[in-house]
Design goal:
This protein has a single domain, classed as Porin (Beta Barrel). It contains one helix and 13 strands; from the N terminus they run αβββββββββββββ. The longest helix has 18 residues. InterPro entries: FApF (IPR025737).
Length: 250
């Protein structure tokens, strides 16, 4: 009996260690680039992605988002729930307007795992709620937004991501089609960077394109900070924007 007790005492730490749940992979966020990731928040975890954005639309108009927050919850390994809230300020020579932009609720669902030339793929869909907004920013109708998110792993350090989708603003019936293409590079285990082009194609207007780039830094597996900036490439695109933010999960 004494021998059995002694053996159990020696082996228990190794058994307990083996039974510990695996820690999740480092956090993956949909910010700071315009390309959303196909990654799903781990089951049972809550994730928040927040940032501050300044955009110069043209010589007369500018806007601040202070902050934008994407709230996410992992339902299971294939599905997450999402909520987007934005406090926005729009300025022009005549007026300054501040308020809550229409809240968006939605989900992300995994569709495909990466397999050769087949990219890792998910779908993101949101519904814009016109009544959950400040009166200055209320839309007339409910509006849908969706995009397919795809990603290729090119090497241990390089990845290629792209999105295709469409969105409505709740005020006009015409859709705006969207595309994004980003290349990401891991400088180290904690520091990453990216370069990206993206554009919007309204049904009744001219398509416009922009480019941006930025950095991410992993403080821990559950906390990341980021910085990014972009410029317009065509006449109708905003002149430029800058953004700072962070993402964390619990």
């Amino acid at each position: 009996m004494a021998r059995l007790f002694f053996a159990s005492f020696i082996l228990f730490p190794f058994y307990a260690f083996a039974q510990e749940p695996e820690k999740p992979e480092p956090i993956e966020a949909d910010r700071p680039d315009q390309t959303e990731t196909p990654a799903i928040v781990p089951k049972g975890m809550f994730q928040a992605e927040t940032g501050f954005v300044y955009e110069k639309a043209n010589s007369d108009e500018e806007s601040f988002v202070t902050p934008t927050v994407l709230w996410k919850y992992g339902v299971n390994e294939n599905f997450e729930l999402r909520l987007i809230t934005e406090l926005e300020t729009q300025k022009n020579p005549q007026t300054t307007t501040t308020g809550l932009a229409p809240v968006k609720v939605g989900f992300k669902a995994k569709l495909l795992e990466e397999n050769g030339i087949i990219p890792k793929t998910s779908i993101i869909a949101h519904l814009q709620l016109p009544d959950l907004a400040s009166k200055e920013f209320k839309a007339e109708h409910y509006a849908a937004l969706f995009r397919f998110t795809m990603q290729h792993t090119l090497s241990d350090d390089f990845s290629l991501g792209y999105n295709l989708g469409a969105e409505w603003d709740g005020n006009v019936p015409d859709a705006t089609f969207i595309y994004t293409l980003t290349a990401g590079y891991s400088i180290s285990e904690k520091l990453g960077c990216y370069a990206e082009v993206f554009g919007f194609a309204p049904e009744e207007s001219t398509t416009y394109h922009s480019a941006d780039g930025g950095f991410t830094y992993l403080i821990s597996n559950d906390f990341m900070i980021d910085a990014s900036a972009g410029v317009g490439l065509t006449e109708l695109a905003p002149d430029y924007y800058i953004s700072l933010g962070c993402s964390f999960r619990l």
